[in-house]
Amino acid sequence: MSQGRAGIRIALAGQPNVGKSTVFNMLTGLNQHVGNWPGKTVERREGHFEHHGEQVHIVDLPGAYCLTAASPEETVTRDFIIHEQPDVVMAVINAASLERNLYLVAELLALPTPVVLGLNMIDVAQQEGFEVEPRVLQAAIGIPVVPMIAAKGQGVHEFIDVALQVAREGAAEPHRPEIRADHRAVLEGLLTLVAPYVPSPYPADWVTLKLLEGDQEVTELMRDQLPPAVWERVNSVLLTHEDAIIAVASGRYDWIRRMTRAALKRPRAGRITRTQRIDAVATHPFLGLLVLAAVLAVIFGLTYSVGGPMQEWIQMHVVEGLAGWLGTALASGPDWLRGLLVDGVLGGVGTMLTFLPILAIFFASMALLEDVGYMARAAYVMDRFMHAIGLHGKSFMPLFLGFGCNVPAIMGARIIESRRARLITILLAPLVPCAARLAVLTVLAQVFFPDSAMLVTWLLTGLPLVVLAVLGVALNRLVIRGEQAAFIMEMPLYHLPNWRTIAILVWQRLLAFLHKAGTVILSVSVIVWALTVLPTGEIETSYMGIIGYWLEPLGRLMGLGWRPLVAILTSFVAKENAVATLGVLYNAGETASALAPALRAELSPAAGLAFLVTQMLFIPCVSTVAVIKQETGSWKWVFVNVGMLALLALLGGIVAFHVASWVL
Amino acid sequence: MSSNGKMTLAELHNGEQATVYALQGGHGFIGRMAALGFTPGSTVQMVRNSGSGPIIVQVLDTQIALGRGQAAHVQVRSEASRPEGAS
Question: Which residue ranges make up each domain of chain A?
């Protein structure tokens, strides 16, 4: 760790929807670093700050409901506390669902690190009719409890004061939960058996408890550690007490009931809360869909009315301005240098820059909907439809954003907790036709089918979506094995958004895109540029042209010559390049009317259709590919995705050509 | 409806209350459900069950959405079964 052992090390823990990131952002501001946990696709956020002259390093552990190692979030949380031994754990709990939130606290108290509690959202809890007495709760559990409204900055300061005090001076023994009485003897017996063999730094009683819970990771750990004879005895105890997990969980809830008996007052029965009133509409099977449609309409309305003009402005004033400036500055320099900088480097940089407004709008919309609590409702109303193609309700929102741009669709898939469902969503996302692909389709449909352009456009927009559905079923059943993600999701209470949290999230996502995806985008656009000008300076005789000639035998299967093939290949840098390249190769402009004579002279309607089908199914642009790498953390899935789509595009083109030649 | 009120969570009507008496499934599923408040003896109330698709159920002051498949693995005993619209 860069901080070394200097200063105080704090872990911030909590269940999802407790306002934990608000606390983290408040403490660290922009002094934070976002990375990944080693070997995991879980975000690791850490930061540092100074408090009363003391250096504090804080790690924001991922939201987890418990510590059973059923999800990577849970594994990361407990591994961090056991192996990296922070000085104190700051646990944030939501006062409006106190009992359920204390379940994680019950698990945290089984580990040796001292815990302090931040009782957050007391305002939201009051609105819902709950009264919680922090001092009574503190007396019951025996650990510090600090009331907070983190969204308004209240109590956060006191929370960190208390945490630092505990980190320096240690804490008194809290009242820990115990296993249900009927299993106490079993637990004692097991502890005596395994205790001498538990490796450091694992606490022996925690390991014993996890063995009884049937925790896979701990079971494997102890199977390796125990002598075979002892393992035999342990295993037979575990087999006769397979249902002990219920006794452990019940023991925790007994403890929770005792801890909250005096501290918690519930709302009177029959009271209708704000959340219930909104949900009467938002989760209604029919009205809920209308609400969702309205939400999506607003997001896309913003994209077109604000994002579109901003993109044009950046293109005109920044990218083309820079290109003009570079052109003049290098007027006396060699042609290749000007080409490299203006067409190669600036081509890539320009693509990234013009993406930013749309990405910002989409990231902000996602973050806002998540923060106010609506995202879970959208997932709920769409689950039955997504379920039909083997996906999760939470896959809907990211996939739908793909109509604007595939990049936020793939980055947005982070809201899906199940790794498998997230991976399938990422692999399918490029089949949602993005705005650039649709623009190419609109122009070229008019070229090839002037009389039925509208119909062709609609059909070909639908085609990749049908492929997406079929592929979703196939990936689920055949390729990526594993249980279909269980749909178990908390519906958080609605609350007002925290703009600071949203702004920091958007900023970090944009930075991640520019930083991580940027290198790949830049290198690929320079390489593609080089392929189109080397060695002669003309695209017709360039390496790209030669690749086109090589691919002609494949192209002939769908009635296409080398020019359309090259156009499809150059669309890898950016989808809209397909039209521009055709314009160059056929010495025509980039409008439908300019391209039409030359294209129609070479390509039959059947070949034209094949071209459009291939274009709609072909591999995503380099920005999307770079983000797939960034989000899956492996080139393997990038190659799976690119290979799958290249093959689909080829097959689609061949089928379209032959069917159309036969029909038309 | 059977006389002793035993059924799965997926069969509860809107507004109906029940007590969980068993969970079926692997340790992973049971552990996750337990963390959300579904343990034998806990009280649940159906918030939204439209006969198909996922359901929403209230447990421990929180609303949880469950797939129909997951809900069918939770055995409940209906309490004062007074479904909406019943006389």
Answer: 8-169, 181-265
The rounded Cα A477 to chain-centroid distance in angstroms is: 23
Confidence of residue A206 (pLDDT cuts 50, 70, 90): very high
Which chain A residue shows the shortest CA-CA distance from B15?
A: A270
* Cβ contacts from A onto B, under 8 A: 118
Question: Phi and psi for A214 in degrees, rounded to 5?
Answer: 80, 25
Q: Which of A475, A471, A499, A470 is nearest to A485 (CA)?
A: A475
pLDDT tens string A219-249: 999 999 999 999 999 999 999 998 899 999 9
Average pLDDT for B12-28? 92
> Please, are residues A526 and A345 in contact by the beta-carbon 8 Å criterion?
yes
Instruction: Report whether A163 contacts A10 (CB < 8 A).
Output: yes
Q: Which residues of B touch A126 (CB under 8 A)?
A: none
**CATH for B6-75, among 2.40.30.60, 2.60.40.420, 2.30.30.90, 2.60.40.10?**
2.30.30.90
Residue range A582-598: average pLDDT? 76
**Rounded mean pLDDT of A433-453?**
87
User: What would the CATH number be for the domain defined by A181-265?
Assistant: 1.10.287.1770
Half-sphere CA count of A278, side-chain side, radius 13 A: 15
d(CA B85, CA A17): 34
Q: What local confidence, expressed as pLDDT, does residue A484 receive?
A: 64
Angle (nearest 5°) at CA A426 between A421 and A429: 120
User: Residue A589 has what pLDDT?
Assistant: 67
Contacts with B65 from chain A: Cβ below 8 Å: 376, 379-380, 383, 393, 487-491
Which of A45, A59, A76, A80 minimizes the C-alpha distance to A7?
A: A59
Query: What pLDDT band is residue A590 in, cutting at 50, 70 and 90?
Result: low
